[in-house]
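User: Predict the structure for this protein chain, please.
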Amino acid sequence: MTSHNSFFGWIYFFKINNNNILVNGVSDIGLLETPYPPIISSPSVVQILNNWNRADTGLFLSTMLVGTLLAYPGIKSTQTSHNFLKRRNFGICMAFTAFAALNFALMNSSYRLEGLVPNGLKANNVI
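Assistant: Here is the predicted structure, written as structure tokens:
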């Protein structure tokens, strides 16, 4: 259910370890040893887009769902009677959420190519 090419395969993107850039996993000499063999050590944007799979789609949709669930009550309780302003503010929140969701999904695809999250290859012995 959480393999590298399943809808919930993105769960490893948020795993806290020494290599996760989101939790400052960078040493003085660059990234620490990768837990999986890298496919491409420095992928280009085209390679990242070509590596898109179900896990990235799952991360995008899950982030959009969480963003919607967080934005809707806040916008609904806005102290204005103008529905136009509420719709505009909700649209702005959803645009930021879509940007963050796309960013997370592309980062997950890049991490898979770099060997930082499961990529279908046998794991290295990294602590």
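Helices lie at 45-50, 54-76, 83-114.
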